[in-house]
Amino acid sequence: MKKSILAIMLIGFIAVLAACNNGSDGGADLEDQTVTVAVTEGNIGQFNAWEARSEQFTEETGIEVEFIGIPYDNLLDRITAEGISGDASFDVVTHLDVMGPSISQFLEPLNNYADDDFFDRFPESIVELSTYDDKIYSLPLRANAQVLFYREDVFEDLGLEPPTTWEELEEVGETITAETDKSAITPYYQAGNNGQNLAIWATYLWGNGAEILDENNNPVFNTSEGVEATEKYIGLLTEGLAPEGAVSFAEQESRTHFKQGRSAMWIGWWWVYSDFNASDSSAEEVQGNVGFTTVPTWEGGEQVASVSTFPLAMMESSKNKEAAWEFMEWLSNPESEKSIVMDSLNEEVPADQFSTDIVQLENLRDEELNELGDGLFNIGGDSFENARTFPTIPQWPQISDILSRAISNMATGEDVQSELDAAAAEVEQLLQE
Amino acid sequence: MENRFFKYILLAPALLIMGAITIFPLARSLWISLHEWNLTESLEIGSFIGFDNYVRAFSDANFWNSAWVTLIFTVATVVATIVCAILVALLLSKEKPYISYLRAVLIIPFALSPALVGYSWRFMLNPDYGVFSAIIGFFIPPLADVVWLGNAVTAMIALISVAVWIWLPFMSLMFISGIMGLPKEVYEAAKMDGANGFQTFFRITLPMIQPIVLIATILMTMFALKQFDPIVTLTSGGPGNSTEVLNFLVYNTSFRYFDMGYGAALGYILAIITVAFVLVYMRKLVKGDDWN
Description:
By secondary structure, chain A is of the alpha/beta class. Chain A has two domains: 29-142 and 310-377, Periplasmic binding protein-like II (D-Maltodextrin-Binding Protein, domain 2), CATH 3.40.190.10; 144-308 and 395-432, Periplasmic binding protein-like II (D-Maltodextrin-Binding Protein, domain 2, 3-Layer(aba) Sandwich). Helix content of chain A is 47%, strand content 13%. Chain A has helices at 2-24, 26-30, 45-61, 75-85, 100-103, 116-119, 124-128, 152-157, 166-179, 198-207, 224-238, 251-259, 273-277, 321-331, 334-345, 361-364, 367-372, 376-385, 396-411, 416-432, and strands at 34-40, 64-70, 92-94, 131-132, 135-136, 138-139, 143-151, 183-185, 263-269, 290-294, 305-309, 312-314, 387-388. In chain A, the strands form three sheets. In chain A, strands 7, 8, 9, 10, 11 and 13 form a six-stranded mixed sheet that branches. A five-stranded mixed sheet of chain A has the order 2-1-3-12-6. Chain A has a two-stranded antiparallel sheet with strand order 4-5. The radius of gyration of chain A is 25 Å and the shape is globular. The termini of chain A are far apart. Chain B is built from 14 helices and no strands. Chain B has helices at 2-33, 52-58, 61-92, 97-106, 108-111, 114-124, 131-139, 152-180, 184-192, 197-208, 210-226, 229-234, 246-256, 260-286. The longest helix of chain B is centred in the first third of the chain and has 32 residues, at 2-33. The radius of gyration of chain B is 24 Å and the shape is globular. Chains A and B meet through helix 4, helix 12 and helix 19 of A and helix 13 of B.
């Protein structure tokens, strides 16, 4: 009897040892796992390239990767609903940076998986947009720097240089509207769409030394510098440099306006560069004639640019966290990022995998890439270095809507000072609640 | 004895399903509306605050703006749709082969997704490349430069027009079937008595289709109060928040700001308004002989 008890104990002990051994040796366990990655629908080249290359990851690690698409409009609801359920149907998800503060409770902090050095590969400004309460919740593998696009042919014909200050932008704008049938620039003032109309406004604001919130999270965008910056931004419309329709344009419509050859300048995210010059998406006169430079600033003022990210995060409720991290780490390899873009620029991948998304510091300054991309990544690198980011506080989506609405109102003719004062009061009340 | 319980056993599955998908969510959202609960702060429902969320609504400028916008949108949409639908029905309630073809074509706008309709009209109203702007600019040159979605008044007019465009086919078909079912003898008698077209319409047709008008008004009011997709895709509530209806405010509060308690309270206020409208109409409908 005693012998049999001893034998059972011995078997049990061996089993426990075996289990411990399996726990520490992740590779063997991970082989059978499937990581589900949720990306936004819309045939985005970078996500398609990830999906195509995930087969290579599976070959290397034995971990299967499954991609699912979520419509952009449902993204926030879906992450929230799946987060609340505690049993998300995906392990990894991409999301817009402004959604981060409100969904961070459903995400796994990545500091447990990588040390600070790992994140040094990204520009500081975009890591900031993934950081809440001193924890990094996502990898900013897709990020957009703001640049100024301009029609090289129009500027050349009129003997103009790309503007470096807002004053210069107005000057060249006046020449363009006087000498051509084009608008000088197409901004987008429409409210909503996750605060799209804030990006250019914020660049005017920050460049003039104003802030949205101070260090104690009090609204300070209605100071004299803030009002001056806002008046200048709205002035693009009231001074006739922008088309009247800009008041009802969202970013996409404004981009379409530029692609149709109806304006000579456009400020926005750098990923559209390939779109502007593509033969199947822009008017003939626009194709191959779009140049880019850093966003103008104020005379003698600080060079700033807005930045927006669409980072990759791991769900806190994921049951395949180790495998998920393996995949995220594999995607973050600078070589992998460079290879996707090199293949795109060399036209070695199908059109639906075309991507010029570079976010890692060594790639932004990579000579080979910049030579192929006409220096776009250097300009993007400059913009990332000078980038400022919106606050990452939980109330930001509401504040963003309040400001977005105020900008829309001002574009339709409301007084700048009183609109900003009213918005500041509303933000203050919100933050006090 | 067995028979008495048998009917309840048969009813049980339906009651269970109804309870799970209707009664429970309703009761749960009422419970949530009585609590403070911000999902960005906690997954657990917060402290009980009674009717504070409802009181908060009445001191919230955004709520009053949305209530006012909803009222304008609903009244204008209902009136315009019903009037236009009756006019269309008068034109298309004849027994002619080509008219039956037109009646089939009429339904097309209603068969389209409202979100898609919103997007389409957004394109058509674009001042630079929109076909609507081009056409109206050709016929009425002073309106050529109007940015339809660029100011509060024209954006609301555009929104109402699009809502009418969506619902007009369905409402017209209701009236067409109603008018075509009216007894012909009455019209023959009126003709013999020398009644003209206007007299026939106001003295005979309209009184006889009154029950349909009432039902159509109830339905249209509910549809207008629930309208969401074309508003999101056409104006996104703008410019500013000039077309932000209550539905949109509820959506933003609950699913963008995650202020679940307040969002649930706003949802209940909207539901109460809808039910109140319906009750008023129903009283009118049931009163007298209108129903028959």
